[in-house]
Amino acid sequence: MVAPLSLGPRLTRSFFERDVCEVASPLVGAVLARREGGALLAGVIVETEAYRGPEDLAAHSAGGRRTARTEVMYGPAGHAYVFVVYGRNWAFNVVTGRPGEPHAVLVRALEPLVGVELMRGRRGGVPERLVASGPGRLCQALGVGRESYGHDLCAEGSPLSLHAPLTHAPARLVVATPRIGVDYAGEWASRPMRFVDPASPHLSRRVGAASRATTERRRQG
DNA sequence: GAATAGATTGTCT
DNA sequence: GACAATCTATTCT
């Protein structure tokens, strides 16, 4: 009997209270976990995007827009912002910064780590590299939906949680690129606010060689 | 492998 | 009524 894999310590509120890019970058390599009754599902984050309302025209909180949907972004950091895109797909974000700053990090892709077969089954038996390689795909794999809206990811016992990188995992390369699907956002569309591990086969999109050369940097594991 | 079209529904005007 | 921080299948090379 193999001992269950133990996740790293849960990330604390102060981790999320920094600038949104200072959170989005080190989240690459961190672990997103969900507990469903007895089952544990988890994956290593390999792709994130930072959204910095109100000035960021790509953010739902652009221009200080404050509605029932965006409300949680105006609250304290470390809470889940979940929304629907294109009718059928859910997307999972973490609120960052200080209360009143409507910032959030979109988690776009995971490397399945725990509960892989359960997640794969939910995704129609697709190859593992497609199990959580996109915002909608990872929500489907983890069973994240509207009921996760506003959950406090830092609270002890919360079914959704974020954890520090596994201690024995090798350091990951983190590359910044423009964000996906925000062409309507003017100059904000080209800003390097998407953070990926370019070596991962689990990304929603591969990273081009050009952006790799200009923006890559090493991060402590 | 790359490009394209269609699906489908919550949210906001 | 229009649109969207996407996904999938299909149709090309």
Describe the structure.
The protein has 221 residues and is α+β, with helices and mostly antiparallel strands. Helix content is 15%, strand content 27%. Strands 1, 2, 3, 4, 5, 6, 7, 8 and 9 form a nine-stranded antiparallel β-sheet that branches. β3 and β4 form a beta hairpin. The longest helix has 8 residues. It binds a DNA duplex (13 and 13 nucleotides) through β3, β4 and α4.
Keywords:
15% helix, DNA-binding, 5 helices, alpha+beta, nine-stranded antiparallel sheet, globular, disordered C terminus, 221 residues
Summary of the model, kept short:
With 221 residues, the chain is of the alpha+beta class.
**In sequence order, what are the helices and strands, one letter per element?**
HHEEEEEHHEEEHE
Give the beta-strand count: 9
**Broad shape:** globular
Question: Quick one: biggest sheet?
Answer: 9 strands, antiparallel
Mean pLDDT: 92
Calculate the terminal CA-CA distance, rounded to whole Å. 29 Å
Enumerate the spans where pLDDT stays under 50 for 5 or more consecutive residues. 213-221
Radius of gyration over C-alpha positions, nearest whole angstrom = 16 Å
Helical stretch tally: 5
Broad structural category: alpha+beta
> What fraction, in percent, of the residue positions are helical?
10-25%
Secondary structure layout plus pairing:
Layout: H1 13-16, H2 20-27, E1 31-36, E2 39-52, E3 80-85, E4 89-96, E5 103-114, H3 116-122, H4 135-142, E6 160-163, E7 173-177, E8 194-196, H5 209-215, E9 217-218
Antiparallel strand pairs: 1-2, 1-6, 2-5, 2-8, 3-4, 4-5, 7-8, 7-9
The protein binds a DNA duplex (13 and 13 nucleotides) through strand 3, strand 4 and helix 4.
